[in-house]
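User: What would this chain look like folded?
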Amino acid sequence: MTEVQNQVYMVLDAYWRKYGFGPSMEEVMNITGYKSKSNVHRIMMKLCDLGYCKRLPRSARSVRPSYLKIKDL
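Assistant: Here's the prediction, encoded as structure tokens.
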């Protein structure tokens, strides 16, 4: 995991722990300081491809760390 991926992963993890649902792309963008939603989207999808995160298709705010189970929410 690169530093950039780790930064986004930590934002996702902290947001899920605090609120119980995932952040929007814009919220991740604002927290990390990126200037483009497409970069955040690319990083989040790469985390999913690598197995660090999971997501539900066609569902907003569904990207979550892989250790969280849907039934736990």
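The first helix runs from residue 3 to 19. If you want, I can go into more detail on any region.
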